[in-house]
Automatic annotation (TrEMBL), chain A:
This is Biotin carboxyl carrier protein of acetyl-CoA carboxylase. One of its GO terms (biological process) is fatty acid biosynthetic process. The lineage of its organism: Bacteria, Pseudomonadati, Pseudomonadota, Alphaproteobacteria, Hyphomicrobiales. It comes from the Bacteria. This protein is a component of the acetyl coenzyme A carboxylase complex; first, biotin carboxylase catalyzes the carboxylation of the carrier protein and then the transcarboxylase transfers the carboxyl group to form malonyl-CoA. It comes from Ancylobacter defluvii. It holds the Pfam family Biotin_lipoyl.
TrEMBL record, chain B:
Residues 159-178 are annotated as: Disordered. GO terms for molecular function: ATP binding; hydrolase activity. It comes from the Bacteria. This is Allophanate hydrolase.
Amino acid sequence: MAKTIQAPLPGTFYRAAAPGEPAFKSEGDAVAVGDTIGLIEVMKSFTPVVAEEAGRLLAFHVENEDAVMAGQPLYDLDA
Amino acid sequence: MAERSFEVVKPGLATTVQDLGRPGYYHLGLPLSGAMDRFALIAANRLVGNPDGAAGLEAVFLGPELRFSADALVAITGAELPPKLDGVEQPLWTAFKVAAGQVLSFAFLKGGARAYIAINGGVDVPEVLGSRSTYALGALGGFEGRALKAGDVVPLGAPTTAGGEGKTLPPDGRRPAQESGVEIRVLPGLYWHRITEEAQAGFFEDTWKVAPEADRIGYRFRGGKKLDFVPRQQPFGAGSDPSNIVDSCYPYGSIQVPGGTEPIVLHRDAVSGGGYFMIGTVISADMDLIGQLQPHQPVRFQSVTLEDALTARAVETARLARLGELI
């Protein structure tokens, strides 16, 4: 069943560890509990967005470097 | 383990012990520290029967998860960060009971930036220079001079008053987080003449957005036009950039604009001096408001006179006095 995972905190969302590096996850990838999906930058620190549920990543709701609010949909997971 | 305490299960993003701060040492380079939203901390303390200056927790953007070792009375104020007790949502701006063994956690932030967690008896860390506030940059005060970490066991003081469960601050006495139309009032300062008339006007006309790196030290803004400086030969002792001055004291609330590009409002953990010109100072009545701004939130600065600033301060004082009647 598809479910939407929300951003835990506000900031800037990144899909890769650094510019030019491969994305942590792409649409269609398998996700295991503990996998890093992206990073949220706020107050000079990068907080990993870590999967708390396993499944298949269906689609991202935000682009790389988008501003996100806490609670904003980040990605859909087929759990 | 202390007689009354809580254990940090999850620390949140940067949860620190704060009281009303450590004034009197800024000339030695030690900032005020203390709650970024003082009104919210005072309200939370009053709700649980603590003195205004009792130490509580400041949680920013992401709430912690805390397991209590003893019964306690807790109130959450400030940001709209909905508290949960063993998973059951609890009201904000209201004192609720926590039984020994229960876990306090939080849902996602809905508005504002910083929530204050007051616990009856207060957080009982040692006072450093008259305050329990954390100054993390200086590794001073608070719990071991740093933000809380998972596994910390934080001591609580003995409650001085009994009961108070269900005490609440009515909505018209609270300050809800503003999502749009935020205006921050500024008194232009000593170095106002350093920028051109066009830059002076542009600073107040432009919409600025909170930069994600804004923190307790300074709130950085970007998105407005670069400020142009009046040409001059830099005086002896000033750096070569036109935004440099001969080193000066930085007041709490002062707005420096390094390179003329991104204004930074110095807040509770600020450095006390340096060589950047300051456009002016945010009035004291609006400093709490800044502590509740989220990254990317649009704001405008508004120019006021000293008289306006003092009137606004009187309004704030009256609002605090009204807390006594409401709680």
